[in-house]
Amino acid sequence: MVSRRFRFVTLDAAGHRCPAGPAPYLDYRGATEGERRALPGVSADAWLAKSVESAGLDYAIEAVVPAHLGEVRARTQARGDKVSAAVKARLAAEINYWDARAVQLAARRSAATSRASTPSGPAPVPTSPQSTRSSEELSQDGPHSPTSSLLHAPESATSGSAYT
């Protein structure tokens, strides 16, 4: 995860650093001509000649970044816990559904087997479309048609009861 936060740091002549907030420059204004004349040597002070940027980065590494990391970690952990709970709930629901479905299918299977073991009558004999064709249609195909050898079954196979 990448998180970015831009913060300003204030630094005083004693070397004290503190966070200045996200946009302290909004409250600043340029120095007037009179203010510039009153403070002629301020920009030449030794503490401003040092690496001010380095002091700000050091403070960010020591104080600002760990606090931000704690915030991000708490949000991310909460989001991960929420997702984990949702996944577990969905998984439990799916397991319950498929367990119930397996019980239903087992009940159907056992009911079907008990019905199959006690037949209520003879099973119907399937008839193919070729055996139901009339003799006129068979004679129209002719003796050399591809279906004629399949359609001309002996009399005993096509007539009478299948149970005799």
Tell me what the structure shows.
The chain is mainly alpha-helical and 164 residues long. Helix content is 55%, strand content 5%. The protein is built from six helices and two strands. The C terminus is likely disordered.
Entry summary:
The protein has 164 residues and is mainly alpha-helical.
Provide keyphrases for this structure:
two-stranded antiparallel sheet; 164 residues; rod-shaped; mainly alpha; disordered C terminus
SSE run: EEHHHHHH
- Structural class per helix/strand content? mainly alpha
Please state how the strands of the largest beta sheet are arranged side by side. Answer: 1-2
Whole-number mean pLDDT: 75
Proportion in helices: 55-70%
Q: Can you tell me the residue ranges where pLDDT is under 50 for at least 5 consecutive residues?
A: 131-135, 145-164
Strand content: 5-15%
Number of helices: 6
Taking Cα atoms only, what radius of gyration do you get, to the nearest Å? 46 Å
Could you tell me how far the N terminus lies from the C terminus, measured between alpha carbons in angstroms? 81 Å
Give the tally of β-strands: 2
